[in-house]
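User: Okay, second chain of the day. Same drill as before: sequence in, structure tokens out.
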Amino acid sequence: MDSIIFDVDGTLWDSTENVAKAWSDCIQQDLGLSMEITAERLHQLFGKVLPEIAARIFPEYDKETQLSYINKCCDKEHEYLLKYGNPTFDKVEETLKILSEKYKLFIVSNCQSGYIEVFLKVTGLSEYFTDYLCSGDTGNQKGANIQEIIKRNQLSSAVYVGDTLGDHQACQEAGVPFVYASYGFGEVPDFAYTIEQFSDLSKIF
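Assistant: Same drill. Structure tokens below.
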């Protein structure tokens, strides 16, 4: 094994409380709609690509309007996170520091453009990651983006750490072992490894 690729939401941090506040504020004040977004609802949506999330939240609107609305929500989200911050899960930085001494570390997420950059700026964890990629930048699903990270960084044996069934399916598509973060948002029946807290990674690898 030469590298570890990470999901963000539900794996490195849980931003749903703050994102729910930002999206609700945008929807109510900027879009003028009487809708409130909760962290619990975002737990079910995070991990999906943005157009799918938009369709779930704004089903009564056409696709163009859905994307316009969700992009406004994401802009508000970035502003909110940069202003108020958001904690990582326990011992994330300490564990990344240990892992980075042995492996190259990467991020691949189904998030929107700019979100990984916000995450890295808010947490100060940029130094530990070699490269990152998201669906918002490429228009591709997570499996293809994992393959792209492997190809452009010439990785020979990577694993992926995530928390949802979608992550597991992406790993199957990309042909990499899946490490299931059981403390995250989803339930996954099949995996190569499982961790109950982020620091378990330093014990496994």
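The first helix runs from residue 16 to 30.

User: Thanks, on to the next one.
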